[in-house]
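1st attempt posting a full record on here, be nice pls
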Amino acid sequence: MTTSVLEQEFRVESDSLGERNVPANAYYGIQALRGSENFPISGITPPQQYPEAIWAFSQIKKAAAQVNKELGLLDPTNAELNDKIGDALIQACDEMADGRYNDQFIVDVYQGGTGTSNHMNCNEILSNRANELLGGQKGTYTPVHPNDHPNFGQSTNDVTPTVLRLTFLKKHPALVASIKLLEETFAKKAIEFKDVLICGRTHMQDAVPLTLGQQFGAYGNALTDARLKVEVAAENLHYLGLGASALGTGLNSHKEYRPRVVKYLAEYTGLPLKQAKDYFQLTSSFGHFSDYSAAMRSVAIELEKITQDIKLYSSGPKTAIGEILIPSLQPGSSIMPGKVNPVLPELMNQLSYAVQGNDLTISLCCQNGQWQLNVMMPMILTKVTESQRWLTNGLREYAERCIAGIEPNLEFIEHRMNYSTILLTALNPFIGYANAAKIAKKVLGEGKTVREVALELDITDKFGIKLDEARLNEILSVESMTQPNVG
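the predicted structure (as tokens):
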């Protein structure tokens, strides 16, 4: 008797809705298959969007398997089989953590149902692999069943929020490192440019002098404040509602499960994880996620302000501001020879807008829970990890390939400062408004520098000191014009 092609390539699985053909070699099962068919949205699967979430699933399931094995809950009637099931699940979890089953996570990242499809996809993979290790076949779900063993004492409602927390924490250090790198790059430039005097501007008009170093130092310090917001927001992500079960009551879990599972999870992940202060809160409220997203938005807002300034300072470079020169990374035009565009600052603008847009989506999702549950977890997971990845990669490239290579255009800066009436603001307290106005009139009318006209007018300042070249150098020094200087 010959076997048909269909029988060779597929196995039949059933659930409460009926039967389906599942690829014979697949570690996923019927529930993941239904999810993949129901949500053909983006074509992006979890390992592509957030591989850290696969790691998070594996660590949660490993900790749960260890606890349930110790408590004899995987097979209460057969201690030997209980331990074998636990050991097989733990090995399958370790293999999952290594990325061995990434291609078996088949459900689109955009999905309904609090991420149940992702969760069951994980449970099916672990069950099928555990059964293999115990000498069984995929799809038989004996002795290990996806709902009864890798999922014992759990619910999507406490597993998925824990996946979110671990995923965000896994990606968090790289984000912080990139923000710090940009901070430090600006700090180095602040020292390098501490004596480069430039024209300060308000209302897009010339105002008073400052140094380029002072401005770059301000950029670095603004990013420091934004980073600290991210780090503070991350602290609350260490509280886990694992063990809440469906609503927070812990129904169908052992009384020892909560402390033990968090203990093992902290051990496996190396993270300072803690039990929830209120399990009902962490099931129904996602304020910790919105806080973390809002902190990333703060980074994006500072990034946008800084980047707009960088673009303006480097604009031209011959016919606009042109006071700084940024690295030339690629030709900027298919028609204009020699044109080089600020491509990384332009990218930073776009990333800033995207992160702020994600924050709006996340905040809407976090406020949309009803009663004991918020079902918007798949979108929150997708958008938070997206913002983390964009900022992590973008800030690193911005620091290394753009900001680190900035140089002052000293010729432009010195020319403009010499002919700018902003120097008269610094002279005003010493020579009086009327004398300063006389100098301004001649500077603007005759095309001379402020220093030239001030020396021509033979002025004595309010302190009885003749306004000669030495006195001008004293008043118009970088130090005098960029800090409190009267008296």
